[in-house]
Write a structure and sequence with these properties.
Number of strands: 0
Radius of gyration: 23 Å
Largest sheet: none
Order of helices and strands: HHHHHHHHHHHHHHHHHH
Helix content: over 70%
Distance between the termini: 21 Å
Strand content: under 5%
Length: 508
């Protein structure tokens, strides 16, 4: 079986964009209402618990990625028996993970108060709230979560997107009602596990309807199980790096600076992550097709495809970086007010943080499609260690600046420099690495130049009401950087190849 990558990616992107917009706008509305009805400390508490739970969920990271990797070949070869056995393995592992999360989560109960600097809302039962968050996370592993792997392999994330969109709308709608009508944070939190269960049941129903030939049954060979375990170890460490970045940042901000600063930090991070989420629709939409191409096409063909995808992606990522730098402050002033804002140097650090994250997205798809997590294990362990140490040291002496700088340093050294090199060493060949780095340096310098020009022009705009200023800046950011990219790249070979492929997708 050979998937039509572009056709499937276009469908996934359409549904994915709508889904991500819902996932961005609904929590945005919810955070706004929490701030207005309950205050900044509740907002900070919500961010802190979410960070703790995300760290507990690290026990899962790597399992799904490794299993999906092993599904690409049997699906391409119509080997139904192996796919069923992989699903059965995935199901059993997920149940074990659910138990681990419950046990470890309960063991953390005595230490909750030590993770908060200063006060928290009076009369609030921290333990009860934490237990609701914990149950919401663990229940998913007992209820068909493993079945969504088939949607990834068959490049049908649009099914997942449509279901998540519906559930998110219902969840956030019910939470808003609980806040406005009852002003009860406990009822607000209880809505999460209710809709988590509903989401899993819906996905399970759709997968069984689309792929009735697959059931969680059968036993894998010992050699295959050992190979999966090895790759799970590598994938686990790689995913820990991604999830732990903001989780550790939020926890250290709470420890050193208190819940209110944690709320401010997570407001800024939420906007940055919202943009990351939108861009992830593009990268994830290609993941199933790239996995198929790694099996069916040559390394040279895949490297040509990588260069084209990376050019398009970094153009979009660069434009988003410019928009963030120019629009962050007026937007935050409109949303939360001047009292909930960081100074401009912190905004510059957030933009560097964002851009560095984006540089690794496309190469990560090819790394995952080749199952290279085991080769990245030392990189991942080093990144986690450096991030923790730098967060503690720099956060203690430099505050919020130090915590963001710590994350930037670890991403650049471990993820960008060392991580990319591993993918080229074990798949694309090191002889092509210099060319790849050259492209990224060029993209960065072009983006930096256009960002400086755009921001300078934003400062020259006439003074007016904050909303008017934001809208004027937004119009400028939409057109000026993209015109600049076209003028700079228009004569390059990669530009013409990429534009040609985009036109083909749109025509289809």
């Amino acid at each position: 079986m050979n998937l039509d990558v572009m056709k499937n990616a276009k469908r996934n992107i359409i549904f994915g964009v709508v889904n991500k917009l819902v996932h961005i706008l609904c929590p945005f509305a919810t955070r706004t209402i929490i701030q207005a009805v309950l205050g900044a400390e509740y907002l900070g508490l919500n961010s802190l618990f979410a960070s703790i739970i995300s760290i507990l969920s690290l026990s899962e990271l790597g399992v799904g990625t490794a299993v999906v990797y092993h599904m690409y070949r049997p699906v391409a070869e119509n080997d139904t028996g192996t796919v069923c056995a992989l699903l059965n393995f995935y199901k059993r592992v997920y149940r074990g993970i659910g138990i681990v999360i419950l046990v470890v989560g309960m063991a953390l109960l005595p230490f909750l108060s030590y993770l908060i600097s200063g006060t928290y809302p009076e009369g609030l039962n921290l333990i009860l709230l934490y237990l609701i968050y914990l149950f919401n996370t663990s229940v998913s592993y007992f209820m068909y979560a493993y079945m969504s792997s088939l949607l990834v392999v068959y490049q049908r994330e649009d099914i997942n997107s449509s279901t998540n969109m519906m559930i998110t709308l219902l969840l956030n709608g019910s939470q808003i009602v609980m806040l406005y009508v009852f002003q009860d944070y406990y009822l607000f939190t209880l809505m999460m596990p209710v809709f988590t269960i509903a989401n899993n049941l819906r996905i399970a129903y759709m997968v069984r309807k689309m792929f009735p030939q697959y059931r969680a049954e059968g036993i894998l060979s010992v050699n295959l199980v050992n190979d999966i375990k090895k790759r799970i170890g590598g994938a686990f460490l790689s995913k820990v790096c991604m999830v732990s970045r903001n989780a550790f940042d939020s926890i250290f901000v709470s420890m050193f600076l208190g819940l209110t600063v944690t709320a401010v930090y997570n407001n800024y991070y939420y906007i940055m992550q919202a943009v990351c989420t939108m861009l992830s629709v593009i990268s994830s939409s290609f993941s199933g097709g790239v996995g198929n191409h790694v099996v069916t096409k040559s390394v040279e063909e895949n490297f040509t495809e990588l260069k084209m995808l990376n050019f398009i992606y970094m153009w979009i990522a660069g434009w988003c970086t410019i928009c963030l730098f120019c629009l962050y402050q007026p937007f935050m002033e409109l949303w939360m007010g001047e009292g909930m804002m960081f100074p401009m140097p912190v905004i510059a650090l957030f933009c560097i943080y964002f851009y560095l994250l984006m540089t690794g997205d496309m190469i990560t798809i090819y790394s995952s499609a080749n199952g290279l997590w085991w080769y990245r294990r030392y990189v991942s362990m080093l990144e986690i260690t450096i991030n923790l140490v730098l967060n503690f040291v720099l956060g203690k002496f430099l505050g919020i600046y130090g915590i963001i700088i710590a994350t930037i340093i670890t991403i650049f050294m471990c993820n960008f420099i060392w991580g990319i090199r591993i993918t080229f060493k074990h798949y694309f060949q090191l002889t092509r690495l210099k060319e790849y780095y050259y492209y990224h340096l060029k993209y960065f310098l072009v983006t930096l130049f256009l960002c400086a020009v755009t921001y300078s022009l934003c400062l020259m705009l006439p003074d007016c009401h904050i909303l008017g200023s934001f809208l004027l800046r937004m119009v400028l950011c939409i057109f000026l950087p993209n015109i600049g990219y076209v003028l700079i790249y228009r004569k390059s070979k990669i530009y013409n190849q990429s534009i040609g492929n985009v036109r083909k997708i749109l025509e289809r």
